Automatic annotation (TrEMBL):
This is PTS glucitol/sorbitol transporter subunit IIC. InterPro entries: PTS_IID_sorb. Keywords: Membrane, Transmembrane, Transmembrane helix. The chain crosses the membrane at residues 25-44, 64-83, 145-167. It comes from the Bacteria. Pfam families: EII-GUT. The keyword Nucleotide-binding does not apply. The keyword Transferase does not apply. PROSITE patterns: PTS_EIIC_TYPE_5.
Length: 183
């Protein structure tokens, strides 16, 4: 009988933990993301969606802007997960690659910019603890982590371009290279 009681308590505890996590998110990350979304949409309305589309169209033609500059600026200004919302201004053809680059950048920038993805800070801090125990400076690690990340995130975005091309051919689909933003 004790096993059944323990199982029932564990089962209910699983849902209680889920409920506690949900409430935590509702008082922390959800309002933050909502405010960032409102701020981004306000800026878009002030600048004008047509101008944003023109900027996106021009930046979409250059892989360095697409997979290096846009993810860096988006991550720095909007943090994770809002950086992904900038992908809406890119043509369908480049959205998978932008997402790949932006998602990776949210991890490789934590040493210098922990506000970008604080939930993943423990990964960087785990590595940094080993560096600290060796008596090496953590700032060097943070800068190297960022620089290597920028290069690798760019490569990841570009490789995803080739993967997308392969899938387009395989599936006989052609993704648009023109910006089409639905309001």
């Amino acid at each position: 009988m004790d096993y059944i009681v323990k199982f029932a308590e564990g089962f209910i505890n699983l849902f209680q933990t889920g409920a506690d996590t949900f409430i935590d998110w509702m008082t922390s990350i959800v309002p933050l993301v909502l405010m960032l979304l409102i701020a981004m949409n306000t800026i878009i309305q002030l600048i004008g969606e047509e101008r944003i589309n023109v900027i996106a169209q021009k930046s979409a033609k250059n892989p360095f802007l697409r997979y290096l500059v846009l993810p860096f600026l988006g991550s720095f200004m909007l943090a994770n997960p809002m950086v992904h919302s900038l992908g809406r201004f890119l043509p369908e053809r480049y959205k998978p690659s932008y997402f790949a680059s932006a998602a990776q950048f949210a991890h490789t920038s934590n040493g210098i910019f922990p506000h970008i993805n604080p939930a993943e800070l423990f990964i960087y801090l785990g590595i940094a603890q080993g560096i600290q125990e060796l008596g090496l400076p953590m700032t060097d690690l943070a800068v190297r982590y960022l620089l290597v990340g920028l290069v690798m995130n760019f490569i990841g975005g570009w490789v995803t371009d080739f993967t997308t091309s392969y899938i387009e051919k395989q599936q006989n689909v052609k993704l648009s290279k023109e910006v089409k933003v639905e309001g």
